[in-house]
Amino acid sequence: MRIALAQLTATTDPQENLALVSDFASRAAREGAELVVFPEATMCSFRKNPAKAAEPAGGPWASAVQALAAELGVVIAAGMFTTAPDGRVRNTLLVTDRDQVCYDKIHLFDALGQRESDRVAPGDRLVVAEVAGECLGLAICYDVRFPAQFTELARRGARAMLVCASWAPGPDKVHQWRTLVTARAMDSVSFVVAVDQAGPAEDGDLPTGVGHSMVVDPSGRVLLELGEQPELAVVDLDLALADLARERLPVPADDPSLYRIRW
């Protein structure tokens, strides 16, 4: 599978960000990508109240992304905000294909002085998306700190994980990002494609990103790592190698009954 990593810095304007998505996705399509992965909050950065941008999953922004993907002949995975029944929003990863798939972030970032849950309602289910005949597990940002999510996605058939992030800058944050992404690949014996917002932004105190989008193989080997600035990169992955790795190290097949799986 040929996958493009679209490391961008989202603005607070969904229409400006739609233009960025179009530019990155068009370039990726010209390079033969089947899947183009964008960061968390691609629709609108956290520097704007997400409630002002949120819309249903079938709303204008998501529909425009879906139409763009169909026009280019690619699948797009991009972070957006959707409406929640309690007046908050959901932090959603949209995956276009014949059938639109959405994953709502389960683990909210109530840490380091921030409370994502004040504005965002948590998701309540794990999602494995089928893209070009391949099963991909979906995760968003803070989810990467929770190994059980990734091992369970692997048990459900995912051979690669997509992690879309707006990873807040700070002391040791790049080191933590690299370590966590690599560990989740090893925990689940899967490929991990982790795409962060570029950054950090020069203004505002809410997260954009640190860059360093990565691809890691099931053994924990880093196949690709970007820098800090906006960038597009394309990588070819043979996801069947995850099956071979699991034959040698069958971690996802181990009995999970010791743990209470909620989702």
UniProtKB/TrEMBL annotation:
Entry-linked SUPFAM superfamilies: Carbon-nitrogen hydrolase
Residues in CN hydrolase domain copies: 1-239
A Gene Ontology molecular function term of the record: hydrolase activity
Keyword Hydrolase: yes
InterPro entries, sorted: C-N_Hydrolase, C-N_Hydrolase_sf, UPF0012_CS
Record key words, sorted: Hydrolase
CDD domains, per the entry: nitrilase_3 (cd07581)
EC number, UniProt record: 3.5.-.-
Pfam family, one: CN_hydrolase
Domain of life: Bacteria
Family: Belongs to the carbon-nitrogen hydrolase superfamily. NIT1/NIT2 family.
Protein name: Carbon-nitrogen hydrolase domain profile
